[in-house]
Amino acid sequence: MSRPRSAGFGFGAVLVAIYAFIYAPIVISFIFSFSAERFPTIPLGGVSLQWYGFVWSDPDVHAAFWRSVNVAALAAPIAVFIGFGAAYTDYRSKFFGKALYLTLGLLPPLVPVLILGVAMLFFFARVGLFGGLYSIVISHVVLCTPFAFTVVRLRLTQVNPALEQAAWNLGAGPWRTFASVIVPLCLPAIVAALLVTAAISFDEFAVAWFVSGMNETLPVRVLNFVQGQASPRINAIGSLTFTISMLLVMSALILLFFRTPQGSAPIDAARDKP
Question: How many CB atoms lie within 10 A of CB 151?
């Protein structure tokens, strides 16, 4: 029995309403970022790029932006390296306590950021790393690793385990099999995980606010703008940050939709090599 067309239309209308509710504030922020007025009004009193100019010429925003870029550039590869290792261990091995291993690995995003931030604040203060750039990097690695694990593990579920066994039967050792079979098949997921974790690190502010000290990242700088006064520069910074994050996430989604053919290419390559 086919589903009534009205039911599909109603479901689509609900989805549109949900997405409109979620993205309406972002769209409004984009619009107000081009307002020429100090206090945005509808309709706009004029269109101007002056707030983007103020952001561009603000040395504190410049420093915070590049600090966020540096943190993301350091945290993302480390998180992906750890997440890939954890995902491959889960895919390849069976051992006692595996459920606990996975639970602990996926736990950080489930802990309230307030508790996580306070815990990291006390830890870094005790070991003498509070307020440094590396304290933010370590915190973001903890937060981002479970996401990298999830993305890579999703890809590994699509890898036929027989490919590894075939490579072993053709004379390839464990490390050569890993480099010639597993890594190429997981490469789209690895790059996607890099983009996702970079976006998460670039946007994260709650934990960074606790552990950054005077080394403000861009989201922390925006939070300070909000606490001080309702500056129109917030709309400009928010629009730029959202655009960068969405480009990273959309690129990751495109890579995840890409599927490496699971034919005999790795096996043929192994057969051709002595």
Answer: 27
Mean pLDDT by 10 residues, the chain (274 residues): 58 81 80 71 69 80 88 94 90 80 83 87 84 87 92 84 77 78 86 91 88 84 70 78 85 71 42 43
Output the 3-class SS for 45-97.
CCECCHHHHHHHHCHHHHHHHHHHHHHHHHHHHHHHHHHHHHHHHHHHCCCCC
The fourth-level CATH superfamily of domain 50-272 is: MetI-like (1.10.3720.10)
Taking each helix axis from N to C end, the angle separating 233-257 and 218-228, rounded to the nearest 10 degrees, works out to 150
Query: What does the angle CA 116 – CA 148 – CA 115 come to, to the nearest 5 degrees?
Result: 5
The domains of the chain are located at: 50-272
